[in-house]
Inverse folding.
C-alpha cells in the first residue's frame, strides 16, 4: 500500500517489473548471445571471442540450429526487456470515500490505449470476491464486483498470496468499501 488515509486507500501494482522478470531477461539475453556467438563462429570458422571453442561443432546442422535458437532467445529477451521498460501492467487501485469513486489504473503497450484508467462510482461497487484457481500455478485472486460490468482482478499477477493473506486483504477492503465479501 503506497498512499493511505482514513478516506482514501491506494494499492500499488508492480506489473511486469518484478525481480524474476529482470532475472529471466538477463539469463535469456546471455544464453542467446552465447548461442549466436558459437553459431557464427562455426559459420566463419573463426573464434569471435578468444575463450570460445567451436571446433567440435559443425555449421550444418548444429551451428545453424544454434543461430536459430540464438535469434529466437535474443528477440524474446528484447520483448521481455521492453515490457520491463514500458512497465506493462503496473499501476494502482484507488478507493476514495471522500469523492465517492473507485479508480483502477494500469499501463499497457504503447499506442492509443496505453493508459487504462477506469473510474467507477462508489454506489456501483457490489462486493469483493476471492477465487481459488487450481492448476500448475494455483493461486488466490481478489476480484472487485461492479454493477453491470465484469469482475475486475485486483491482486498482483505472479505474486502468490496465502489464503490468510488474501483473506485479510479482502476483509479489510470489503470493510473499507462497506460491501459484502464472497469467499
Amino acid at each position: 500500500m503506497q498512499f493511505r488515509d482514513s478516506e482514501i486507500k491506494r494499492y500499488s501494482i508492480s506489473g511486469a517489473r518484478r525481480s524474476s522478470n529482470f532475472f529471466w531477461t538477463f539469463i535469456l539475453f546471455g544464453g542467446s548471445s552465447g548461442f549466436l556467438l558459437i553459431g557464427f563462429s562455426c559459420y566463419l570458422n573463426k573464434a569471435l571471442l578468444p575463450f570460445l571453442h567451436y571446433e567440435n561443432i559443425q555449421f550444418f546442422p548444429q551451428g545453424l540450429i544454434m543461430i536459430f535458437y540464438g535469434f529466437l532467445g535474443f528477440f524474446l529477451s528484447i520483448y521481455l526487456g521492453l515490457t520491463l521498460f514500458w512497465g506493462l501492467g503496473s499501476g494502482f487501485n484507488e478507493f476514495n470515500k471522500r469523492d465517492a469513486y473507485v479508480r483502477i489504473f494500469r499501463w499497457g503497450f504503447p499506442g492509443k490505449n496505453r493508459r487504462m484508467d477506469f473510474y467507477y462510482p462508489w454506489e456501483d461497487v457490489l462486493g469483493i470476491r476471492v477465487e481459488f484457481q487450481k492448476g500448475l500455478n494455483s493461486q488466490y485472486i481478489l476480484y472487485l464486483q461492479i454493477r453491470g460490468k465484469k469482475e475486475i482482478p485486483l491482486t498482483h499477477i505472479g505474486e502468490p498470496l496465502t489464503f490468510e493473506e488474501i483473506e485479510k486483504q479482502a476483509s479489510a477492503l470489503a470493510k473499507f468499501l462497506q460491501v459484502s465479501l464472497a469467499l
Q: What stands out?
A: Residues 59-86 form the longest helix (28 residues). Helices lie at 19-44, 59-86, 163-177. The chain has a mean pLDDT of 89. Residues 20-86 form one domain.
